[in-house]
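Appendix B, example 12.
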Amino acid sequence: MFHESELVLQANHIVKQFPASGGRTLTACNDVNLSVYKGKTLGIVGESGCGKSTFVRMVISMDKPTSGEILYRDKNIVAMTKKEIWENRQNMQMVFQDPLASFNPKMRIIDILTEPLMNYGRLKKSEKEAKAKELLEMVELPADFMYRYPHNMSGGQRQRVSIARALSLEPEILVCDEATSALDVSIQKTVIELLVRLQEEKQISMIFICHDLALIQSFAHQIAVMYLGHIVETIPGADVSDKALHPYTQALLGAQFSIHMDPNEKIESIESEAPSPLDVPKGCPFQNRCEHCSEKCKTVKPVLKEVEPGHEVACHYVTDKK
């Protein structure tokens, strides 16, 4: 589906475990394999607690995996020194869910926007105003906003500033961690349109994590569906509605609400609760919520298998029929 020459980042067999009480181990990410391509968006979707944020924290070197490797331009960032990680952060920047929490409330917007450039010695003090104006214009905000403080702005405006700050270093990869979930629906749309425009202009690669499948399928080139630390399906974003095969992906689609849906169409909830990540069942992690669960599902863990180019599914019910 994508040319290997355009591969920017590749996560291979990523496992992340945390010690828990009683000598137990919580596995947040279990053998995750994902790829990011030049100028494309990888969407990662799943319920809260499935391991999405843990994975992207490892991508931007905020955490280290228990095992596995993350290759950026063929260099393993997991094995980098502290200095190399600091240098590499210019290539990967993150937009957080709550910009107010990620900003210093005592700093003006001009200082927030230019701080990354000042830290890396890429901007002179005399150039701050001109650069802040340029960055604000890039995200469609007035230049005089540079003299405001974060609390004097709306949530949507703060998130635009957060995007401008992340792009100030001209990174190759932009990681968005639930970047629109705290915004009103109408504001979500304009922020997504802004990100798509900037991606096309600058050929940025994006990793966008979200729990809203309807939102992410509207702009992601590839979507990875995550459940209890496992990738259960990867599929081109344009194919999700018609070609999704994993029962969990289909359940997420069935739980969607849209103002354009048939009034007689019911929103279907997913039966039962997800098991604790401390007690993931042997075999398929989705077995206790799946209507197609068989004895094989209870004993043998399914692995991702390609069903079409660019489309992989980890499900015995699906792949045994192919």
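The CA atoms of residues 232 and 314 lie 5 Å apart. The first strand starts at residue 7 and ends at 19.
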